[in-house]
Amino acid sequence: MTGLEVGVDVGGTKIAAGIIDETGAIVRSARRPTPDSSEIPAAIAELVREIAAGQAVAAVGIGAAGFISADRQTVLTAPNIDWNDAPLGHDVSALLDVPVVVENDANAAAWAEHRFGAGRGAHQMLAVTVGTGVGGGLVVNGHLVRGAHGIAAEVGHIRFERGGLLCGCGLYGCLEQYASGTALERRAEGRLLGPDGSPVSGPEITRLANAEDPAACELLAEFGRDLGEGIATLVAVLDPEVIVIGGGVAEAGDHLLDPVREGLAAFLTGGTERPGPSVVAAELGNQAGLVGAADLAVDPDRDA
Ligand SMILES: [Zn+2]
Fold first, then answer.
1. How far away, in angstroms, is 2 Cα from ligand 1 center?
2. Residues near 38 by Cβ (< 8 Å), separated by ≥ 6?
3. Is residue 115 part of a domain?
């Protein structure tokens, strides 16, 4: 297949498109606000034409936050956009006359880390993205695991506490309610205050921890141990080689990762009597979804 490898990331507020090279680096990109869902295919087509600037496009990969059908064409439902049963892949393919693959954004980001980032060379890899929510992606034997219906690896919705906090998914006690950026902000209430007495944001907590603020470090330590405890449940089932932690909260580096390692060690079945996974920070940042989607589109069977 010849031509440009294009990745697109569709989020609740913006759509970003980029051309990647064979090392996964983004060589040209553009973005625009996310329009009404009915106009998303046209917006993607315009962005792709803009960055391609007349050059041939080999394929387009689209990463979208939501449940994606197993054939990687249809957005079944999306949490942040009013978007249901949308044949996104087909629509964009018809507009651009190129092959299009749609992938869950967390899966696409996990694939990018596996191909070009912190999970390079690991055949068994679990990615956990700690942002507004908790997302995940799973690579087993070098292949992305989508499950029977395209919606595997929703690691934020394993149950962390029976009868616990109500989750956006409608169930109670999901890990996401304890170990997401939103949960971190909630934990900070009454314990950490901004200079004017206001609540602190997740990025501000991360910044304070990186400046060695004791209260912020303690908060992240509790948070990280809980995240590690949740991850231990996944490790009991999956036994991965490496766990790649990404998302905004991961910018706290070892202020987050060391407590995650502690929590994981404390709750891992078999404890110190068994080998466990390494826990490392993601390397590709918030462009990972775009990069992974582009790579998956150029050779849809690469991971199949
Ligand atoms: Zn949930």
1. 42
2. none
3. no
Ligand 1 (ion): which residues have CB within 5 A? 157, 167, 169, 171, 174
For residue 299, the CA-to-ligand 1 centroid distance in Å is 33
Establish if 116 belongs to a structural domain: no
> Which CATH number characterizes residue 49's domain?
3.30.420.40
Q: How many residues does the chain have?
A: 304
Confidence grade of residue 273 (pLDDT, cut at 50, 70, 90): confident
Please write the tens of the pLDDT for every residue from 7-20.
Answer: 999 988 899 999 99
- Measure 281 CA to ligand 1 centroid, in angstroms: 24
Q: Three-class SS of residue 140?
A: strand
Strands 125-130 and 134-140: antiparallel
Residue among 227, 236, 244 at smallest CA distance from 280: 244
pLDDT in tens, 85-122: 999 999 999 999 999 999 999 999 999 999 999 999 99
Percentage of the chain modeled with pLDDT above 90: 82
Same domain? 227 vs 249 = yes
Residue 198: what pLDDT? Answer: 86
**Ligand 1 mean position, distance from CA 132 (Å):** 13
- HSE-up (13 A, CA, CB side) for residue 237: 10
Do 134 and 247 belong to one domain?
A: yes
Instruction: List the structure tokens of 88.
Output: 């996104």
Res 179 pLDDT > 90: yes
Task: Kindly give the distance from the C-alpha atom of residue 260 to the centroid of ligand 1, in angstroms, as a whole number.
Answer: 20
Q: Considering the domain boundaries, does residue 304 fall inside one?
A: no
Instruction: Tell me the per-residue pLDDT of 30-63, one tens digit each, with 9 for 90 and over.
Output: 999 999 999 999 999 999 999 999 999 999 999 9
Q: Tokens at residue 239, please?
A: 């036994």
How many angstroms does the Cα of residue 5 sit away from the middle of ligand 1? Answer: 34
Q: How far is the CA of 156 from the centre of ligand 1 (A)?
A: 7
Does 192 reside within a domain?
yes
* 166 Cα to the center of ligand 1, angstroms: 8
Give residue 245 CA to ligand 1 midpoint distance, Å. 19
Q: How remote is the CA of residue 27 from the centroid of ligand 1, in Å?
A: 37
